Amino acid sequence: GACDNAAAADVTSFEDFGELMHLVPRAQAVADQLALQEGAVSVQVLPFHPDASYSEMVGDPADCSTRSPVPMLHLLRGSDVVQAEEMWATLHAADEAPGIQQRNSAYLRGLGW
């Protein structure tokens, strides 16, 4: 079934951040396929890794928002994501506040190392 493909991945290869990132589209495809079943919920798959870095700046403290002690895929229920985004929007004027990720990045950069 759909889960067999994701489960067959060699977990030892996730020590490399790039290898984990290659798994994310496959895992999201499985989650999307499973969400089509009656009574299922949508899920977002987010990668976390000790070496995660999305910034062009070397040593960017904002990278800590996507780091974890071990490589992992975090599953978020789509309804929870929508609820968090709606709550954020009610607390902040759309033209005044940064997005959640931008706010987290700015906060972590303010803390520094």
Could you give a short account of the major beta sheet?
2 strands, antiparallel
Q: From the helix content, strand content and strand pairing, which structural class follows?
A: mainly alpha
What string, H for helix and E for strand, traces the elements in order? HHEEHH
Give me the number of helical elements: 4
**Mass-distribution shape:** flat
Task: Work out the strand percent.
Answer: 5-15%
Can you characterise this structure?
The chain has 113 residues and is mainly alpha-helical. The protein contains four helices and two strands; from the N terminus they run ααββαα. The chain has a two-stranded antiparallel ribbon. It is flat.
Brief overview:
The protein has four helices and two strands; from the N terminus they run ααββαα. With 113 residues, the protein is mainly alpha-helical.
